Amino acid sequence: MHISDGILKPEWVFFWFAITVIFVGLGIRMINKRIKEDPVYLPRISLLGAVVFVISVWHIPVPVTGSSSHPVGTPMASIIIGPFATVVITAIALFFQSFVAHGGLTTIGANTFSMGIVGAFGGYFTYRLLKKVSPLWFSAGMAGLVGSILTYITTALQLALSLNPDNVIYYWKLYSMGFIPTQLPLAFAEFAFTAYVIRYIYETGSMDKINTSCPLDRFTKTALMLMFSIISIIAIGAYIGYLDGANMAGTDGTVEAQAAPLASHEGIGIRLMALLGEPLGFAMVGITGGLFTGYFLSDLRRRN
Amino acid sequence: MPGWLSGDPLNGAIITITFFISVIIGKYIRMKRTSSGSPRKFIDQRINLFILFFLIISITLMGHWYVPMGIAVLCVLISTRANKFGDYSRKLIFPVVLSLFIIMIQSLTYGSTRIDLGIISVYKEGFEYGFLIFSRVFAATSLIILMLSTTSETEILDTMRWYRIPEVLIDISSLMIRYIKAFSSESRRMKQAQESRCGFSRSCGSREKMHNIASISGALIARAFARAEHVYRAMISRGWKHDFGSIARYRPLNKSDVLVGFVLSAGIIVMLGIDRAL
C-alpha cells in the first residue's frame, strides 16, 4: 500500500501532509497528556510503533496499482493505545520504512493518511461499534478486516486522484480491483491475527495495562461521529449514483433550479468560488461555517 | 572568429561562466572532502536532509524524464563507485518493479493515440506519462537509498531535533529503533521455540498455524509490555528524562555549510528551470 516518492503530484503531497499534520498534532497532544499521568505510556506506545513497523514492512507487489499489499497492524494498535496515538506511531514507522525504500519521504503524509488515519480510525470505530453486541475476538477481528480494506481503498483513491485526475472514479475502481487478489486474503489474515492477539492479551490480563477509553470529550466525539457518518452516507450515495449512471455530475443544477432559483450569478460566493477553485472554496466555506457554529454552540452551551 | 563568439555571444558567455563557477565549486568540494577525511561528512546532515527533501519535491515537479533519469544514472554510478551497488540495487528493485507496472497500466488505459504492437496496442500518451512516473520513482528512490545509507538513525534523530520536531516524536522514534531490533530477535527466538515444539509442522492445519503465529505475537506483545516498563525504569534510574533533549546543545550551522546548501538549492532550481524550458 505504501506509495513511493515520485508518484504523487506535489499538490497532493502537500494536501495529504496538511491533513496528516493536524491528526499528528492532536495525537502528540494526547500522548503528552497521557505521559504526564503515566510515564510508562511512552515506552508502551513506542513498542506498538515497532509492532506496526514490523507488521507493515512485510509486503507483496500489486501489479495493477504500482503499489504493494501488506498487513497494516494499525487497527490492532488503535484498539490497544487509541487511534490518535496510532496516527503518531504510524507516521514514525513510515518514516523509518522509507530508509528501506518501502514508501517514501514525500509520501509519508499520504501513507499515514491511508494507514494511520483511515485504517486506525476505521478499525477503532468498528471495534467500538461491535464490542457491545459481539464477542471481543470478533469485534477485534472485524476491526482488523475493515481497517485493512479501508486502507487499500484509500490508497487506490490517492493514486487515482494524483495519477488520473481526469477520470478518478474509473481509475479508483481499477486500482481497487488491482489490490483485491493480494489484499483480500491479507485482510482475512489480519482479521484472524487481530482477533487472536487481542483475545490473547485480554486472557493473559495484559489488557488491564491498556487504556482503551477515548480521551475525547463528548462534544468532540459527537462531532467526529457525525462527520464520519455524513461522509459515509455521501460516499455510499455517490457510489450508488455512479452505478446508476449519474457519472458524478454533482448537484449544481438541482440546487440552482430548486433551492436557489433567484440567486445572482454575479454574487460574491460565485466570484470567490471562481477565484479559489471549488475544492478550496468549499474548504473555506466549511472552515468559516464550522468556526462560527463551534464558537456560538459552545457559548450557548455555556449559558445554559 | 568562431561562430559561437561572433554570432551568439550569450551562449558563449553562459558556457564560460558556468564552466568556471563549476571549476571553483569542484575544487572547493575536493578540498572539503580531503580535509574532512570522510566523504560522508562533506555536507552537514541538516543540510543533507533539507536538500534531499527539496530535490525529491523538485523531481516530482519535473515534466520530462530526462533530468530524473540523469539523476538516477548518476546515483547508479555513485553507488557502484562507493561499493554500495549490491545493497542499493536490492532496495531499489521493489519500487522500480512497481513503477514498471505503472508504465504498463497507463500505456494500456490512458490516452488517445494508439500504437499497434501486433498482439496488443498501447496508448502513446499513457506510455509517456508512465515512463515519466517511472523515471521520477527511480530517481527519488535512488536518492533516498544513497543518502540515507550514509546516515545513521542517531544522526537523523539529531537532525530532526534541530528542525524543532516535537520532543515526544524524537523520544518515541529513539525508543522504537531499539524496540524494532529487540522485537525482531525476540520474535525469532519465540518462533524457533514454537518450531521445536512442532508448532509449525506439516501436519498442522492452516488454522492451527495461524493460531500459533497469533499466540506468539500476542505473547510477544504482552511480554514486551512488561519489558517496556522494566527498560523505562532502568532508563529513569540512569538519569534519563522525557524532555531531556535540549535544542541549545546543537552547534550552529557554519557559513560554509550554509553556502553549500545555498549552491545545491540553486542547482536544483536550475535543473527545474532546464526541465521547464525543454
* Radius of gyration of chain A (Å): 21 Å
Bulk shape of chain B: flat
Count of alpha/pi helices of chain A: 11
Q: Which class do the helix and strand fractions of chain B yield?
A: mainly alpha
pLDDT below 50 for ≥5 consecutive residues: which ranges of chain A? none
Helix-residue proportion of chain B: over 70%
Description:
The complex is a heterodimer of chains A (304) and B (278). Chain A is an all-alpha fold and 304 residues long. Chain A has two domains: 10-211, Arp2/3 complex 21 kDa subunit ARPC3, CATH 1.10.1760.20; 219-303, no CATH class. Chain A is built from eleven helices and two strands. The longest helix of chain A has 36 residues, at 168-203. The radius of gyration of chain B is 26 Å and the shape is flat. In chain B, a hairpin with a 4-residue loop joins strand 1 (114-116) and strand 2 (121-123). The model of chain B has no long low-confidence stretch (mean pLDDT 78). Chain B is built from ten helices and two strands. The relative contact order of chain B is 0.11. Chain B starts with a helix and ends with a helix. With 278 residues, chain B is an all-alpha fold.
